[in-house]
């Protein structure tokens, strides 16, 4: 007779199969690091760089920086900060996609931001690979000063700093990565110490690029670019009304509007 405990163990194994093997860090254009292993991004299809409007200087600077990284020469860690929906995350992905199209050996690794403590494990995984990596921390903010100190150590000066073939690129709505309410940081003996930690972290990024709210012409230019790329037509007054109802003019709002246009026209995008 089969051992009842063995049958229970087999049933549990079927309910919770072992995780899939870690992805080959040389095989895919983009990954997610979940704190334990690399998973390939299922469909990495960033917007073409020329479709991102109103941020030409930021496009050129970030592209040049990560082209250097891909070429094996000195490159900076980058902080992209500013208003919501202004293209920070889209630019990171588009720059990596453009470099890959140019034949550069670089990949994007997006890190789940509540697993920053596992970054040394990721660095060990990729350090010896003949490929460059943009380590992407999207929409980063901190609730405790200790997290800021940990990332600061990884950026520069710590025993487990990131390897030469990897640089961090961080997006944040706030230039200095400040917590929304310093007073809530119970672990800080002196709030001034906590503020200094946040400023010291921002100072560790050699490249800091600001993104600002769009004016009406800039917003309409983005809508026009997206609409043309997908064979759609639009009325400027309708696009403006869409943004007004949402209280914001941004690349994200422009994309949502073009998605609406496509739906009205019975198209997919």
Automatic annotation (TrEMBL):
It holds the Pfam family DUF815. This is ATPase. It comes from Sphingomonas yantingensis. InterPro entries: DUF815, P-loop_NTPase. It comes from the Bacteria.
């Amino acid at each position: 007779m089969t051992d009842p405990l063995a049958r229970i163990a087999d049933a549990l194994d079927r309910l919770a199969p072992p995780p899939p093997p870690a992805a080959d860090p040389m095989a895919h254009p983009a990954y997610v690091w979940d704190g334990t292993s690399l998973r390939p991004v299922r469909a990495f299809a960033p917007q073409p760089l020329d479709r991102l409007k109103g941020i030409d200087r930021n496009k050129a600077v970030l592209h040049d920086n990560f082209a250097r990284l891909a070429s094996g020469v000195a490159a900076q860690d980058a902080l992209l900060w500013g208003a919501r929906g202004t293209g920070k995350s889209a630019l990171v992905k588009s720059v990596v996609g453009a470099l890959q199209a140019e034949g550069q050996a670089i990949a994007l690794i997006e890190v789940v931001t509540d697993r920053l403590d596992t970054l040394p494990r990721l660095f060990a995984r990729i350090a010896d690979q003949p490929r460059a990596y943009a380590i992407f921390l999207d929409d980063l903010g901190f609730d405790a000063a200790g997290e800021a100190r940990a990332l600061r150590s990884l950026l520069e000066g710590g025993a487990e700093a990131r390897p030469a073939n990897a640089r961090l690129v961080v997006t944040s709505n706030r230039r200095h990565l400040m917590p929304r309410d310093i007073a809530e940081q119970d672990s800080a003996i002196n709030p001034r110490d906590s503020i200094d930690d946040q400023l010291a972290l921002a100072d560790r990024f050699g490249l800091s690029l600001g993104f600002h709210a769009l004016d009406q012409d800039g917003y309409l230019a983005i809508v026009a670019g997206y609409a043309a790329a997908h064979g759609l037509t639009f009325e400027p007054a309708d696009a403006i009304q869409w943004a007004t109802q949402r209280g914001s003019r941004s690349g994200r709002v422009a994309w949502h509007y073009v998605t609406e246009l496509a739906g009205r026209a019975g198209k997919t995008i």
